[in-house]
Design brief:
By secondary structure, the chain is mainly alpha-helical. The protein has helices at residues 3-21, 24-50, 56-83, 96-121, 133-166, 168-181, 191-211, 215-230, 255-258, 268-287, 295-302, and strands at 124-129, 247-251. It has one domain. The protein is built from eleven helices and two strands, in the order H-H-H-H-E-H-H-H-H-E-H-H-H.
Length: 303
Amino acid sequence: MTKSTEANYQSNSKKTISKFFHIPFIRIIIGTVIMGFIYFLFSVLIKSITGFIEPEATIGRPVRAIIALLALLFGYNLLFKYYERRKVMELSIIHLPKDGLLGLVVGALMVSVTISFFALMGYYQVLSNNLSISSLLAGLIVLTSLAAVEEVIFRGVIYRICEEWLGTNMALIISAVLFGLAHMPNDSANLVSIISAIFGGIMLCLAYSATKRLWLPIFLHTGWNFSQLFYGTNLSGLSEFSVYSGFKSKLQGPEWLVGGEFGIENSVVAIIIVVVVAITLYYIMVKSGKLVKPSFRKTDIAG
């Protein structure tokens, strides 16, 4: 083999390897594994270091959540800056205040409308006041961190890459179904909760597509989750976050209407509200021409 032939062989090998690692499916696998590993690593590592901090609920866990969150966002920015050789605009800090506030407000309003309906129907009742600034702030921090890891993986990695590859509509289906299935292990999860999570996933995907940034879906997700705790209702069938509840409440009525043990996310009222918001976001995207076509269709058109 001549030097020229060997050089060409090495060059072609490098191109083949580079093409392999830039296949959309491979990018999704690598991004998902690395992001999940970073969050898990820092959560476990920091817990071993800060496990002595008390009280655990209002100081220890929030401290770990902040560190894990910063590591996650820094890792995402670093990974895709060099992996995809681009500026990571979906984490543009300049848009954080506006997108973050909008997300929190919309998420809180969605839950508040649902709870108000239940209260008017006589299904929701406040039993006691547990309001505590430190507890609510701690809960907000913890839930923001948890929402961020889900949004980074499901919207920042899976949905974003699928949208570039397969277009908005197909990406919505794939990402939302995976998001719904990810909620299967939750306590009291059933078919309704999976369907509810799928619709929620569609809404959050569209929140990303509407802005091309992760801040809106992260804080919309946070506002949705935090408000459920604020009103003292179950969050996705999980009881571990009840320590952050603003009120101790009673929610009793037909399971299909109020959601049962899983919480209001299983409520037909909440599902309808999520669908309405998702349709509104989709309409905005259509009107503004932000729907992405599959990359192979773009190639066909260009040809």
